[in-house]
Write a structure and sequence with these properties.
Layout (H helix, E strand, L loop, with lengths): L5 H21 L7 H9 L4 H25 L5 H24 L2 H20 L4 H4 L8 H18 L4 H12 L3 H25 L5 H25 L3 H22 L3 H4 L1
Helix pairs in contact: 1-2, 1-10, 2-3, 3-9, 3-10, 4-7, 4-9, 5-11, 7-8, 7-9, 8-9
Length: about 260
């Protein structure tokens, strides 16, 4: 495990705060910065330890954020469990595959994933995604969609909220508000499953997890508060955040271009 200096510990708390703030402010996709922040700001240079540690931190924050949504009646538990169970199987399989992949190749594809998220953030919402209409849950869609989504989440060690929300809308027919609240159960479950897989292989730094969670709690509170104050302007912040993702992804692609020679 890497030994963290006092400066790195402070940077880890700040980085966790940034992740929590973006999650509270814009929702799905916010946790994608957890990995590059730990790599390039805190200075932890083992991508597998970074992915295993951030997966657990994001999982804990997701479960904590699930509680207020549950109290507000925005969690459909039948859909949540039906999506999360096959998703956890996919996440575990994805995490095993991710640990086998070369560091630079993994980060190269992670950067490509960041570009996909950026595009999803700036494109107009489809009618089905914004609809408040509630439709019957189709298990034939929920189970395979959860399995595939969990596999992507486990491979990259991310919460996967940006995939889970549209996945729940498509497969379970949930309106947007319920899809967001319900997705947090899967985000936490996928992250926890991935973290367990990495922890078994000794690829979780528990100090980093604690620092990230601490910073994320404070940042999340500030993010939710800011979101309620800004209202409709949050859409512009999503576009700005998408621009940040493109810049970070571009840097990661440049740094890890040697991965192309491995493929």
């Amino acid at each position: 495990m890497p030994h963290l200096s006092a400066v790195q510990m402070v940077l880890a708390v700040i980085s966790g705060g940034i992740v929590g703030f973006t999650l509270g402010l814009i929702g799905g996709g916010g946790s994608i910065l957890a990995v590059p922040l730990l790599l390039y700001v805190v200075g932890v240079h083992d991508p597998h330890i970074v992915i295993g540690s951030t997966a657990l931190a994001v999982a804990v924050n997701a479960y904590l954020n699930l509680l207020p949504h549950w109290r507000n009646g925005q969690v459909r538990w039948k859909a949540a469990v039906a999506f999360a169970i096959p998703g956890a199987v996919g996440a575990y399989a994805g995490s095993i595959l991710g640990k086998m992949v070369n560091d630079k190749v993994l980060l190269f594809f992670f950067a490509l994933l960041m570009l996909v998220i950026a595009v999803r953030m700036v494109r107009p919402k489809r009618k089905g995604e914004a609809s408040g209409e509630e439709r019957p849950i189709r298990m034939g869609r929920v189970i395979p969609t959860g399995l595939v989504t969990g596999g992507v989440s486990g491979f990259f060690g991310i919460g996967g909220g940006f995939l889970i929300v549209p996945g729940l809308i498509f497969s379970a027919g949930l309106p947007m508000t319920q899809a967001i609240g319900t997705s947090l159960f899967s985000v936490g479950t996928f992250g926890l499953t991935t973290a367990v897989s990495y922890a078994i292989s000794g690829m979780v730094d528990w100090l980093i997890v604690a620092l990230y969670i601490g910073g994320g709690l404070v940042g999340g509170i500030l993010g939710v508060y800011t979101c309620t104050r800004l209202g409709r302007n949050v859409r512009r912040l999503q576009q700005l955040f998408a621009g940040v993702l493109v810049l970070v992804a571009g840097y990661m692609l440049y740094v890890n271009l040697t991965a192309l020679h491995v493929l």
